[in-house]
Amino acid sequence: MEKYDRSQRxxxxxxxxxxxxxxxxxxxxxxxxxxxxxxxxxxxxxxxxITALIGASGSGKSTYLRSLNRMNDNIFxxxxxGKIMYRGLDVNSNDIDVYEMRKHIGMVFQQPNxxxxxxxxxxxxxxxxxxxxxxxxxxxxxxxTLKQAGLWEQVKDDLxxxxxALSGGQQQRLCIAxxxxxxPDILLLDEPASVLDPISTATVEDTLLQLKExxxxxxxxxxxxxxxxxxxxxxFFHLGDALEYDETRKIFTRPKIKATEDYVSGHFG
Amino acid sequence: xxxxxxxxxxxxxxxxxxxxxxVVLAFLLLYILISGLPHVTWKFITGRSSSFxxxxxxxxxxFNSLYLLILSMLISIPLSLGAGIYLSEYAPKNWLTxxxxxxxxxxxxxxxxxxxxxxxxxxxxxxxxxxxxLSGALALTxxxxxxxxxxxxxxxxxxxxxxxxxxxxxxxxxxxxxxxxVVPAALPGILTGMILGAGRVFGEAAALIYTAGxxxxxxxxxxxxxxxxxxxxxxLRSAETLAVHIWKINSEGIIPDASAVSAGSSxxxxxxxxxxxxxxxxxxxxxxxxxxxxxxxG
Lengths: 269, 298
Prior knowledge:
The structure holds two protein chains of two kinds. Helices cover 34% and strands 26% of the residues of chain A. By secondary structure, chain A is an alpha/beta fold.
């Protein structure tokens, strides 16, 4: 891959008072042992927008995303330095209650990972653990979130069936429903459609477009068309750095950096 | 020879080997059942054993085996669950935990007669428990714990890490994720391991000869107070189990129908072990289906 000059990065600054910022990182570094995977990324994510993180495999986009709700904490030997600002708090500091924070910053993973429980229990399990006991509230939560995830019509008669009996696409939409049942502010999605067929992908994309009325969404994707279809902003990652960050339409039509242009036009990656 | 022929030859050889194993197993099983079952009557299963005369039963031995099994599982299931959960979910990967794993491996291959003598020295003599059900249960725990722990750890490890991430991402703590997500998902494997372990314990003799003892005091089946000396539930009484009984009447028994009693006891023992094995398969599969593609409601 081509070398690049860090001084030539173009990162649109959204923290200009014109945009409402939901989450931002300031000089975020992530290292696995002695190997640094993310070399200081500063991005701000606008509220109620979809931001896509694109880049080749190994560019660090997933690593970056997973550090936003500190999922990397669980990987032995990982060190995250720099600031992750959320509602005026640095999420990356030691005195943050990680479990409380993750209620506000939810995540959907690349592989659908429903629990080995019924569809109903998959959605209500975490809210119950967090203290919601009222059956009427839980019932409504199941219906609302499944409708939002575009799954209700298919499973409304099988709510007490095991979630593992669902197809891959249905499982992934269940995982989205499960994540939004927590009513997070921010939803992080790590290539949620990579295991889905085109029809399921289209459904998930529709779901995301509806969800952005209430949620700030940050999505990692390998699929350039997908980024173009659903995102408002796009960040291009390359070798552990965010090289270009701008409105999606600009990234795809008039990128300011050659590496971005090469990537979005399919010259490498 | 070409690959196709090699494949054929290899297939035939593998079939022959498997067939040989199955024939040996089937022969043993049928031999024990055919020579033992004719002696099995209700009176034999429930009757008292006799020291000299013919016509003794195995009722008390059978009860002892079951009671000892329950007691040892009551001790070893919580311990193995705790140890297995620690090793799989909490233990850092370093030399110490690797050492612990190796120790468990070594312990699990310890000959049961050594476990028995160890139990005799530690539980019967040092802890002054004497020849008692409790000594026996503790010795069986030493015998069974390594395998159960290993099985629990393996079953938990088999649960994909994305399940744990799902829990964490919903704001659940590690403990909540382990107890409510990982353990339930691993339950079929854990259950199978526990039941198979029960079968092993049920048929064990060598570890019990020096710990639970080789004699049964007269029991009063009308008094179930565990502190009463002749109570069947008294954990401090000595107790000859079915497997020990078989060993004893064959090595020093003077009853005239020793071979018949021994054959009948063996048949009963085998039937119970088979029962445990089938139960393990049945409940493991049922639970797995319930968790994965269940038709059951609730």
